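Fold it.
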Amino acid sequence: MAVYKRGNYWYARLYWRKPDGTRQTVSEGHFKTKKEASMWCGDMKTKLSNGFQIKEDPVFASYFWDWYQTYKEPHLRVGSKKRYETNHKLLEKYWGHTKIKTIKRLDWQKFINHAGKTRAKQTVELLNRQCRACVRNAVADGIIPRDFTYGVQISGSTAHTRIDKVQMPSAEQIKKLLNYTIEKCSQPKVVSPYVIATLIMTGGRIGEVLALRWSDLNELESTIQFHRSYDSDKRIFGPTKNKSSYRTIKVNKDLLSLLSHLRHNGSDLVFVSHDGTGLPVTKHSVNIALHRYMQACKIPDKYFTAHSLRHCHVALLRHYGMDWYEISQRLGHENLATTLKTYAYMIEEEKRKNNKQVESILDSLTL
């Protein structure tokens, strides 16, 4: 450690060696007093003794990407990887070459506010959650002393989400769509209606359903097992969304009987395409068929996608009285809280109906 004066200011320089013996040094200047320079040295020595990496100060966006590729990418399905890639591009655009040590909590709150101007609150929450995990890793590595994402207030609006723009069909409309779809299954060399019917009757994610093999269907037990997913954009198979998504669900024999019509396809895949690739049909082709069927049934289809049928499945289960815990297990959610958060709009609708029922009951008691 060296403290010295040059002109009207004091300077400080600290020396130390890394575990491999490499000599390191860091300096700071323009202190008004010798005491300030000495205090700076003391602070740096304390940080060194606590494992703080004084010299290491990577660009934040680059550190995020390195962290993602090392800790996250090997364990994620394609859809999750896309979200990390999208958020990395946002970090690069907003932060540029900003070093991670220069970012303060106020800076991070401004960034979150900026992201919330054009993104749904749920999207911003995911962005912050991914970045917070990365920042905590930087703290654990001793690169920064504290988590600058701590205590951030998430902004954004749920009105920006696709599900809020969808006019969800009623239980009667869903049943009408299902019956119409089953009729379309009688057409030769069509696969999409079988996929749509399966989505409605299982609540599976589109990737999970497309990845089904005949060995996943158990006609004796009337069950279907979900244990992998298929990305039709990149044409690759991968794991399900998370561990809890590995599940076996009960289905009715009518669905399994319907799917048995496809057993002549000569593939171990249930929903193999007829394009000669040996791969499942694409999500795009399923969506095209879905919109055509909804229009034929005179059901509003704006913003509606194959994933929306997962919500339709939940609506049917609630219509017939299944409780939320059982639904959560069937959907493969990590916990009940995830289910209640995802279907909060449905719960609010049920609450309004229950309030009207309560009001009606109380009115009947009035003398």
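The two ends are 89 Å apart (CA to CA).
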